[in-house]
Amino acid sequence: MYNRSCQLYEEACALLPGGVNSPVRACKNVDSIPLFIARAYAGHLVDADGNDYIDFVLSWGPMLLGHTDPSVTGALAAALARGTSYGAPCPAEIELAREIVAAMPGVEMVRMVNSGTEATMSALRLARGVTGRDKVIKFVGCYHGHADSFLAAAGSGVATLSIPGTPGVPRAVVEDTLLAPYNDLDAVTELFSRHGENIAAIIVEPVAANMGLVLPLPGFLEGLRKLCDEYRALLIFDEVITGFRLDYGSAQQRFNIDPDLVTMGKIIGGGLPVGAFGGKKRFMEHIAPAGDIYQAGTLSGNPLAMAAGVATLRKLKNCDYTALEKRTADFAKSLADILRGKGVDVQMPTIASMFSPFFCSTPVANFAEAQKSDQKIFASFYKQMRMRGIYLAPSGFETGMTSFAHTDEDFARALEAASSLDFGK
Ligand SMILES: *Cc1c(COP(=O)(O)O)cnc(C)c1O
Q: Within 10 Å of residue 43's Cβ, how many Cβ atoms?
């Protein structure tokens, strides 16, 4: 079934560390080989052996419209004919910035970058620059890309591979990263009372989606806003996943919280390598060349990436988020019922177009609780679903994604696959 992927994986391992260009893709902790993808369409992937899968990873979030959406590929084809990179301003940068500013209530100005990692790294520099302070609060199990400051108790691949700290990150850098459990306002209050005058910012995923899916408890985000106001620190919403996924206005609109800075990526690039950070003009105007905080990029504002982003956001504006949320919730509930029927404990949090199974008996509000999820059962679930044509994230610390291109038949097929699983219970 996986002959060609096996062969490609072997070739890749000789040329790329671990055979991949991003760790979780290697499928190591689910005891599988990675599938090499030949093409994608709508809510589906096709691997190099010709197997067709219903895709619940969606490139880890960007493909909310599904793959090969004609409005996006059409805009890309038109942009391609005009050249691939100019290293100079182009009209599409303004168009994408305008769409973002119109959609996100907390964003007045934007700087385009090339990945989510660059966005969070640069937003932190800006927060440090404008406050003159060095420390940042991050939450255990939240992932903000792979910049040094954020590689303390991080989620996503760091959690998946159980890498404790990361060699190569200077101790002095992570000493400025203060950690608190997600949803724990008391712990944050305690950090402020001890280090308040040195804290530049809190960075938070408004819905945590890199330790599996963990929703903010009522009052948590409001509490962070209040503490930041009290200690004159900046509140950074990392909306790299939630931006344009939780709602067209993103998490900041859905939860009605006004962050100072917002980081973006994934969906805003429509599948091309894009990130952005934005926020209040009074902070953003400190970025060079308007101000003196340096940030730059050879390919930033790339015309192809901007065209894909603009086409994606313009189409999303007219999509029915409420309907997709309901379809996703119905799917997640049915999936949980089926799994429970097989004798396994499961928690299945869901919001907007995201869901994630935790194989444990109690609800999950932070990373310690997420770690109670039985990873052996997860691996078995993953492998059996993949064999049945259902493509899930190969880690119990990632989040399932649905798209506007998923059909009722796709959901029904995924549930049918789940019905035939066997956990030996
Ligand atoms: C994916 C992600 C990032 C990093 O984005 P890259 O484009 O992979 O560098 C940062 N923050 C969050 C919340 C993410 O999910």
A: 24
Given 238, 247, 260, 374, the catalytic residue = 238
Give dist(CA 393, CA 60) in Å, integer.
8
pLDDT in tens, 363-392: 999 999 999 999 999 999 999 999 999 999
**Is 260 an active-site residue?**
no
Task: Give percent helix, percent strand, percent coil of the chain, each to the nearest 5.
Answer: 40, 15, 40
Which pLDDT score is estimated for 154? Answer: 75
Which of 28, 135, 138, 266 is labelled catalytic?
Answer: 266
Q: Within 10 A of 57 (CB to CB), how many other CB atoms are there? A: 19
Phi-psi region of 266 (alpha: psi -120 to 50; beta: other; left: phi over 0): left
What own/partner pairs with CB < 8 Å and gap ≥ 24 does 34-37 have?
34/5, 34/9, 34/394, 35/2, 35/5, 35/386, 35/391, 36/4, 36/5, 36/8, 36/9, 36/12
pLDDT tens digits, 327-357: 999 999 999 999 999 999 999 999 999 999 9
Cα→Cα distances 113→103, 219, 389, Å: 19, 32, 35
What number of residues does the chain have? 425
Neighbours of 166 (CB within 10 A): 13
Annotated catalytic, 143? yes
Active site residue 266: yes
Please, are residues 382 and 29 in contact by the beta-carbon 8 Å criterion? no
Tens digit of pLDDT for each residue in 402-418? 999 999 999 999 999 99
